[in-house]
Write a structure and sequence with these properties.
Elements: E1 2-6, E2 9-13, E3 15-22, E4 28-35, E5 44-50, E6 55-59, E7 65-68, E8 84-88, H1 95-104, E9 110-114, H2 120-123, H3 128-145, E10 149-155, H4 163-168, H5 172-193, E11 198-204, E12 209-211, H6 217-225
Parallel strand pairs: 2-6, 8-9, 8-10, 10-11
Antiparallel strand pairs: 1-2, 3-4, 4-5, 6-7, 11-12
C-alpha cells in the first residue's frame, strides 16, 4: 500500500477506499483495504492512512484513471424516508423561498420532481406523455422512499403558461384564480391515478406562498367517483 504524488495528483495504488474522513487536526484520512506485498503477507489488510493531499483519482487495475474527483464532501449513506414528493417548476426565482417554506411545514427529506410548469403536467400537459412521466416518478418515490404525500406547486409569471404579461394580460388576480383551478385539477388527476396519497397545492408569487386550500384527498376522491 502506498500513495504517490504525480504532477500534483495524489494516487492511491492497489487499494479499495472504505471510508474517507477528517481527523481532529483537519487532515484527510483514508481507511483502505489493500493487498500487502508477498514478503509481508498475502492477505488483505485494513488500515487508516493520513495523506497531505486529497486522493482525486480512482484507477483501474492496469493503472488507467477511471474517474477524477473534482469536489469533496461527506454524504450520509443511510437510506431516507421521503416526507413528500414535490412537483414544482424549475424556475429558479422561487427556489430559495420555496425550500424555506418546505422546511417550515416539516418537509426535510423530499423527492423533487422539477418540470416546466410544475403541476401543469398533471392538470393541462402539452403532451399526455408528460403526465405519464410525472406519475411514474411519483410512483417510484413511493416505492423507493415510502412517500405518502405529494406537494403540487405552480407559480406566477410561469413561461409554461405564457407568463403573467402575455398569458394573463398582467392581471395577477386572474392568474391566481386560474392556477388555483389548475392545482385542483392536478390533484384530482393525481388521485385518480394514485388513490390514497395526501395531496397539497401551493401557488407561489413574488410576495409569498399561497395555500390553494384543496379539498381533502378523501373528498377529492369522492368527487371523482361521483
Amino acid at each position: 500500500m502506498h500513495t504517490e504524488n504525480t504532477r500534483g495528483r495524489t494516487r492511491l495504488a492497489a487499494a479499495n477506499i472504505l471510508k474517507a474522513y477528517w481527523d481532529k487536526s483537519g487532515e484527510d484520512v483514508y481507511e483502505v483495504s489493500y493487498r500487502a506485498p508477498r514478503r509481508m503477507a498475502t492477505r488483505a489488510r485494513v488500515c487508516a492512512i493520513p495523506v497531505s493531499r486529497k486522493i482525486d483519482t480512482i484507477e483501474s487495475s492496469d493503472g488507467e484513471a477511471i474517474v477524477k474527483k473534482v469536489f469533496h464532501f461527506d454524504a450520509p449513506r443511510e437510506k431516507y424516508h421521503c416526507d413528500a414528493a414535490i412537483l414544482w417548476c424549475f424556475d429558479n426565482r422561487f427556489e430559495l423561498g420555496f425550500r424555506k417554506f418546505l422546511k417550515r411545514i416539516g418537509v426535510m427529506n423530499s423527492d423533487p420532481i422539477k418540470v416546466a410548469g410544475g403541476a401543469k403536467c398533471l392538470a393541462s400537459p402539452d403532451l399526455e406523455t408528460d403526465r405519464a412521466f410525472v406519475l411514474e416518478q411519483i410512483r417510484k418515490s413511493m416505492r423507493l422512499h415510502g412517500t405518502r404525500r405529494v406537494i403540487l406547486m405552480v407559480h406566477s409569471d410561469c413561461g409554461a403558461y405564457g407568463g403573467l404579461a402575455e398569458g394573463f394580460r398582467g392581471d395577477a388576480r386572474a392568474e391566481a384564480a386560474h392556477h388555483q383551478g389548475e392545482l385542483t385539477l392536478a390533484a384530482a388527476n393525481l388521485l385518480q391515478a394514485i388513490p390514497g396519497v395526501d395531496v397539497q397545492g401551493y401557488f407561489v408569487d413574488f410576495e409569498g406562498i399561497w395555500d390553494a386550500e384543496l379539498a381533502t384527498s378523501q373528498s377529492l376522491e369522492q368527487q371523482l367517483v361521483a
